[in-house]
Write a structure and sequence with these properties.
This protein is α/β, with parallel strands linked by helices and 313 residues long. The chain is built from 14 helices and 11 strands.
Length: 313
């Protein structure tokens, strides 16, 4: 696959593990990086001292490059960025906010900066802000999605046309076959979340992992579109949200129903009824829980086999 991403991050394979809240701690990030991909620590679910601890433990666990994913709307963003600078994290992925706010700060300290986008418009704005690459994340993805609801298949070529930066495809990708498809659309690499969410090293609760690998087609739904769109597995909490939305309740009522800590309750604590079970649409294709390093190698081998089959057909 195109080498702009492997060269940018100094990694073996253009496979990036998404920085998922309540899943992406130092164990997962270091395992993916050690296997030749790029592991990301998900700062969105961490208090500042916890993030510092995970960065330091990741450094101790692997000598390979790794990064941190930071949602720019995080309440203590100043503290997180200061810790990232002090710990000299080599690569930072930003999301959910304006990249112009922090890109200069990070790049002035020698860091590689990548921003996650859901539209070609924001990919162009990210390029103008000075980022080194963009992640084009389609609506199939777990977690928060763009309001445009553009699929990865449509989004990636639009973003590749809009910018000259390296483009990382995300959303609905969990195999080497999907990776080859994204290359055909112009992507230089892929970011994978759901597959790594059910790895041995993921910090998600075992009940959540088991629920994900048992998911079937149609078990995830894009919801909370009036607030911030998020893809959820159907459960009791989702049904309450769907009922409220069907009755056109106000945003304030939705926020009250959502409350605080729903994602932690579902993903980290394993409450499959009342928790917010964020996962991608590709969960229907996931069947097992295994070490993240094995996942990286299997995805890469599947990619090579797919390329060989296509070349000989």
């Amino acid at each position: 696959m195109g080498n702009r991403i492997t060269s940018l991050f100094n990694i073996e394979y253009p496979i990036i593990q998404a920085g998922m809240v309540w899943c992406s701690g130092w164990r997962l990030a270091s395992a993916v990086s050690h296997a030749g991909g790029l592991g990301l620590i998900g700062a969105g679910s961490m208090h500042p001292p916890v993030l510092r601890e995970h960065i330091q433990k990741c450094k101790a666990a692997t000598s390979k490059p790794f990064g941190v994913n930071v949602p720019l709307l995080y309440p203590q963003i100043d503290e997180l960025m200061q810790i990232i600078a002090e710990e000299q994290v080599p690569i930072v992925f930003t999301s959910a906010g304006n990249p112009a706010t922090w890109t200069g700060f990070l790049k002035s300290r020698g860091m590689t900066v990548v921003h996650v986008v859901s539209s070609a418009k924001f990919a162009y704005k990210s390029e103008q802000a000075g980022v080194d690459a963009v992640v084009a994340e389609g609506v199939e993805a777990g977690g928060h999605n763009g309001r445009e609801e553009t699929t990865t298949l449509c989004l990636v070529p639009l973003v590749c046309e809009a910018v000259r930066l390296p483009v990382i495809a995300a959303g609905g990708i969990a195999s080497g076959k999907a990776m080859a498809a994204m290359e055909a659309l112009g992507a230089d690499g892929v970011q994978i979340g759901s597959r790594f969410a059910v790895s041995v090293e993921s910090s998600a609760h075992e009940r959540f992992k088991q629920r994900v690998v048992q998911a079937t087609e149609g078990d995830t739904v894009l919801t909370l579109k009036k607030l911030t769109p998020v893809r959820l597995l159907k459960n009791k909490f989702y049904e309450a949200i769907a009922k409220a939305e069907a009755h056109s309740v106000s945003n304030e009522e939705l926020r009250a129903l959502l409350g605080k800590g729903r994602a932690k309750k579902g993903i980290f604590e394993g409450d499959l009824d009342e928790g917010e079970l964020e996962i991608g649409q590709v969960s229907a294709a996931l069947r097992d829980i295994k070490p993240a390093g094995d996942m990286v190698r299997e995805i890469w081998q599947d990619y090579l086999v797919t390329k060989t089959r296509m070349a000989s057909s």
